[in-house]
Write a structure and sequence with these properties.
The complex is a heterodimer of chains A (about 80) and B (about 600). Chain A has helices spanning about 5-35, 35-40, 50-80, and strands at about 40-45, 45. Chain A is mainly alpha-helical and about 80 residues long. Chain A has one domain (about 5-80). In chain A, strands 1-2 form a two-stranded antiparallel ribbon. In chain A, helix 1 (about 5-35) packs antiparallel against helix 3 (about 50-80). The radius of gyration of chain A is 17 Å and the shape is elongated. The two termini of chain A are about 15 Å apart. Chain B has about 600 residues and is an all-alpha fold. Chain B has two domains: about 5-285 and about 400-590, Sodium/glucose cotransporter, CATH 1.20.1730; about 305-395, no CATH class. Chain B is globular. The relative contact order of chain B is 0.18. The model of chain B has no long low-confidence stretch (mean pLDDT about 90). The chains are: A mainly alpha (about 80), B mainly alpha (about 600). Chains A and B meet through helix 1, strand 2 and helix 3 of A and helix 5, helix 11, helix 12 and helix 14 of B.
Chain lengths: ~80, ~600
């Protein structure tokens, strides 16, 4: 194998870290740790911290997976390791 | 047509559909039995994964628990969806590239040892059987209402049907059956929610309804609910915590990594054609799951509202005082749905103060004001106990929706319970027949013998879990959470280290899995009894309930996972590196190119 496997893996890990930070911030951050503070803000009839815990984090998780899948596809092609 | 006949009709039609599909797609070879030849597209696979995933715990039990827990119930919502992000990024694509079809096979090959694979089988069986106990509890609730019998009889009937169902088709049958089941269960969940959201808020979309104002009021549903439940001595709905913030944090973490470590979910990602499809499949699965999971909090809050409206009419909509003399309804005038659920033994009324009316409040509250008012009104304790597991099934009845909606929910509940039980039984049977018997004890076993061993292990698993399900360690969702904790503490760290650390060796992985599993089971069994057998709890030994920083046993998996990682790294440091070819294999697994269709041979 003469691919730049080290570079490929670094790029993958970079993307993973980025996604995991957002994953953590919306659920454990906004939904749990800072929920009380955010509850002072309202989104319609929802207190914001409550919204993140019971609605918002789920929507963001979906976006994260599709974003990851797309970016990974780009990385695969850049390092020429994609499937045909 | 009366309600009961409508239920029989709708449930009967849905079953005819599933069985029809199962027969049509009956599995031939072993490989088809387990993974449907690796040819299922990501959207279909996502839908089947969603059906597989959304079990009795999600469908029947979860909203009921959220209804009781309020804000803290969000831990189920975040935990059981956030895990998919981990699954999509950390495990699914690499396991798909690896190209074997069971988790113990991966562990055995990556850690170059049959003992490692046997340890993985042990972890898998413990997690899956615990999971099925939770399912059986849910199956019992669903069948007891469906047939109008006690929940014990419901479990016996459910055991029989689950067995027939799982043995009939293999994974291929199950994949297409599960697409059908998904469709049934998602309609069954959302249609009543839409009706109820319309009734209470005038908004047909439950996700928006939950954030809207009550019909005819300029106060939001949630803030009204907050004040009504606080008046009755319950915790404030939008902020009440499950024990502590720390407990909510580790509980959520436990469910997330457990999701990514549960074998029956991981197996799903072996069935897609390509590595890139494995990533996308997780996304599609989560979309289909999210439809139910974002509806659940609305169902929960609205069911709570409707329950209070039933027992004390006027309190929610007309702001009347719940403690007034004629505020609570008379038992003799209770609605029919209460009578129907009383038959199952899951809803009980006990007239403690002999006034012939139903008082529903939290008599254990620390709010002196509430206790004083209750005392002055002549209340002698809460008189209505509603099992959390009936909330979803009873929900359309509580809201007085048409019969066909009630029947549809019954069909959905049964679909949810059966589909997941079937998926788990597949994971158990492949672990026993393929990984244990063929892989370790008798490599020369014929294909026929392997299939037979698989079916026998399914039967044993059903009997054991059904028996334990008669005296379950908790509500369906709580028991299932224990299973997630077990998977989180044992399998997830091992799989992850197998992919992300080239140097992790067999000694480290095995020591990690065993210590994670042991620590978690030790803490869980202290609360729930040895092997979940009632009466064998040993809480004194660990210093009382939740003695580890107030963490509940359901939440302990995250701690077990930490122990697993720590032990694995320590042992890895003092033992020798994995051989060259294993390190090269890890390199190869990380790169999508060259993925092949899965095959079972070694």
């Amino acid at each position: 194998m003469n691919h730049d496997s080290h570079g490929y893996w670094q790029a993958t890990l970079g993307l993973l870290t980025k996604v995991l930070i957002i994953w953590f911030l919306v659920s454990f951050g906004a939904g749990i740790l800072f929920a009380d503070a955010l509850n002072g803000i309202h989104l319609g009839g929802y207190p914001l911290g409550f919204w993140f815990a019971q609605q918002g984090s789920i929507y963001i998780f979906i976006v994260l997976i599709f974003y990851y899948a797309k970016k990974m596809g780009d990385i695969d092609r850049k390092f020429d390791v994609h499937e045909d | 047509m009366d309600l009961q006949s409508t239920i029989y009709l709708v449930v009967g039609l849905s079953f005819a559909l599933y069985i029809g599909i199962a027969i049509w797609a009956r599995a031939g070879t072993t490989s088809e039995f387990y993974v449907a030849g690796g040819g299922v597209n990501p959207v279909m696979n996502g839908m089947a994964t969603a059906a597989d995933w959304m079990s009795a715990a999600s469908f029947i039990s979860m909203a009921g628990l959220i209804s009781n827990m309020g804000y803290g119930g969000g831990l189920f919502l975040m935990g059981w969806t956030g895990g998919y992000v981990l699954l999509a990024m950390l495990l699914a694509p690499y396991l798909r590239k690896f190209g074997k079809f069971t988790v113990p096979q991966f562990i055995g090959d990556r850690f170059y040892s049959k003992s490692a694979s046997t340890v993985a089988v042990l972890c898998l069986l413990t997690a899956s059987i615990t999971y099925i106990i939770g399912q059986m509890t849910g199956v019992g609730v669903a069948f007891s209402r469906f047939l109008g019998v006690s929940s014990d009889v419901g479990i016996y009937v459910g055991m029989g049907i689950v067995f027939l169902y799982a043995v009939f088709g293999g994974m291929k049958g199950i994949t297409y059956t599960q697409v059908a089941q998904y469709i049934v269960l998602i309609f069954a969940y959302t249609i009543p929610a839409i009706f109820i959201s319309l009734q209470l808020t005038g908004n047909p979309i439950p996700q928006l309804g939950l954030g809207s104002d009550l019909v005819g009021h300029d106060v939001s549903l949630l803030s009204k609910l907050d004040s009504v439940v606080t008046d009755l001595g319950f915790g404030k709905y939008t902020t009440s915590l499950p024990g502590s913030k720390l407990n909510m944090f580790v509980y959520t973490m436990s469910l997330m990594i457990g999701t990514a470590g549960l074998p029956h979910v991981i197996m799903r990602f072996f069935t897609v054609p390509k590595v890139s499809d494995a990533r996308l499949s997780a996304g599609w699965a989560l979309i289909f799951i999210a439809i139910l999971y974002t509806t659940a909090p609305a169902v929960a809050a609205m069911a709570k509202t409707n329950l209070i409206r039933t027992v004390t009419p006027g309190v929610v909509m007309k702001d009347s005082n719940p403690f007034a003399a004629d505020a609570s309804i008379e038992y003799e005038k209770r609605p029919d749905w209460m009578k129907r659920w009383e038959k199952t033994g899951l809803l009980k009324f006990e007239d403690k103060n002999g006034d012939g009316r139903i008082q529903y409040y939290n008599d254990k509250t620390k709010n002196a004001d509430v206790l004083k008012k209750a005392g002055e009104a002549g209340w002698k304790g809460n008189e209505l106990s509603v099992n959390a597991d009936i909330i979803v099934l009873a929900n359309p009845e509580i809201a007085l929706l048409p019969d066909w909606v009630i029947a549809l929910v019954a069909a959905g509940g049964l679909a949810a319970a059966l589909s997941t039980a079937a998926g788990l039984l597949m994971a158990i049977s492949s672990a026993v027949s393929h990984d244990l018997i063929k892989g370790v004890f008798n490599p020369g076993i014929s294909e026929k013998g392997e299939l037979l061993a698989g079916k026998i292990s399914m039967a044993v698993a059903i009997v054991v879990s059904g028996w334990l399900g008669l005296n379950p360690p908790g509500f369906a969702a709580g028991t299932v959470a224990l299973a997630f904790g077990i998977a989180a503490s044992s399998l997830f760290p091992a799989i992850m280290m197998g992919i992300f650390s080239k140097k992790m060796n067999k000694e480290g992985a095995m020591a990690g899995m065993l210590s994670g599993l042991f620590v978690t089971l030790f803490y869980v069994f202290a609360h729930k009894g040895l092997f979940f057998i009632k009466g064998t709890e040993y809480l004194d030994l660990i210093g009382g309930p939740n003695s580890f920083f107030g963490i509940t046993p359901e939440a302990f998996g995250a701690i077990g996972a930490l122990v697993n990682f720590a032990v694995a790294f320590l042992v890895d440091k003092v033992t020798k590196e994995p051989p060259e070819h294993i390190q090269a294999m890890v390199e190869a697994v990380r790169i999508p190119r060259g993925s092949k269709a899965v095959d079972g041979a070694h």
